[in-house]
């Protein structure tokens, strides 16, 4: 397995602004998944993007994937206080299902 | 309701006293996994299981045991807990195929004194 590395480590934005975070990984993947963790709770799956996809949307979330740069980004538009959480990416290898997680990006949305 | 249930939610124990954290899922998932989460280190995988009677070490298996006698249950056993196992533990499950999302329990906060 391999873990993704999220960047930045922390992000503070005003309610209504957009939040962008990035994920880099090292080897070829089958897909990449993004998860959210509210303080001290279990991770919740947000969105999955396959290696042959470049962009995917889900509500206010937009995920991009650039396999040539081995990177992905998660954009949260029109942020709300409820978006305050940590966000993790998990690259899934083609021949290995194990999901590993990095330290995440902690997003704080200020009212 | 589809869920992964961990118990207990909080546990305080002393060094050397054996303990078990239970994990159960009701989604007929083949794959189950345990993680520990420590500040600045992200989630690290302890053990995982691809199916009944099949378990494998993750990245940090030392000091832990698991078993998978039934599909729905995947207990985590600490035979002789030590203070460096103080952590937040999560159980997760999925169908185990490449595009299956993981479903997480709500965590067990363990303190070993």
Topology:
The complex is a heterodimer of chains A (about 110) and B (about 110).
Chain A: E1 5-7, E2 10-14, E3 19-24, E4 29-37, E5 44-50, E6 55-58, E7 61-66, E8 71-76, E9 85-93, E10 105-110
Parallel strand pairs in A: 2-10
Antiparallel strand pairs in A: 1-3, 3-8, 4-5, 4-9, 6-7, 7-8, 9-10
Chain B: E1 4-7, E2 10-13, E3 19-25, E4 31-38, E5 42-51, E6 54-57, E7 65-66, E8 76-78, E9 87-94, E10 103-104, E11 108-112
Parallel strand pairs in B: 2-11
Antiparallel strand pairs in B: 1-3, 3-8, 4-5, 4-9, 5-6, 7-8, 9-10, 9-11
Question: Can you characterise this structure?
Answer:
The complex is a heterodimer of chains A (111) and B (113). With 111 residues, chain A is mainly beta. In chain A, 0% of the residues lie in helices and 55% in strands. Chain A has a five-stranded antiparallel β-sheet with strand order 1-3-8-7-6, with no helix packed on it. Chain A has a five-stranded mixed β-sheet with strand order 2-10-9-4-5, with no helix packed on it. In chain A, β7 and β8 form a beta hairpin. Chain A is globular and about 45 Å long. The model of chain A has no long low-confidence stretch (mean pLDDT 93). Chain B is an all-beta fold. Helices cover 0% and strands 50% of the residues of chain B. In chain B, strands 2, 4, 5, 6, 9, 10 and 11 form a seven-stranded mixed β-sheet that branches. Chain B has a four-stranded antiparallel β-sheet with strand order 1-3-8-7, with no helix packed on it. In chain B, a hairpin with an 8-residue loop joins β9 and β10.
């Amino acid at each position: 397995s391999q873990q993704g590395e999220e960047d930045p480590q922390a992000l503070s934005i005003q309610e209504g602004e957009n939040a962008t975070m990035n994920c880099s990984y090292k080897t070829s993947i089958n897909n990449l998944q993004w998860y959210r963790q509210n303080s001290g709770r279990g991770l919740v799956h947000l969105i999955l993007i396959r290696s042959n996809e470049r962009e995917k949307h889900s509500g206010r979330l937009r995920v991009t994937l650039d396999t040539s740069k081995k990177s992905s980004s998660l954009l949260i538009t029109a942020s709300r206080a409820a978006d305050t959480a940590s966000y993790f990416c998990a690259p899934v290898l083609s021949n290995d299902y194990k999901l590993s997680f990095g330290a995440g990006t902690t997003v704080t949305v200020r009212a | 309701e589809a869920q992964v249930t961990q118990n207990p939610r909080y546990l305080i124990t002393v060094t050397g006293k054996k303990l078990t954290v239970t994990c159960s899922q009701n989604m007929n998932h083949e794959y189950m996994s345990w993680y520990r989460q420590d500040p600045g280190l992200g989630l690290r995988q302890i053990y995982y299981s691809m199916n009944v009677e099949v378990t494998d070490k993750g990245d940090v298996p030392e000091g832990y045991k698991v078993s998978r006698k039934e599909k729905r249950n995947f207990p985590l056993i600490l035979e002789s807990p030590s203070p460096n196992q103080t952590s937040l533990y999560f159980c997760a499950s999925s169908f185990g195929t490449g595009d299956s999302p993981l479903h997480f329990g709500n965590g067990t906060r363990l303190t070993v004194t």
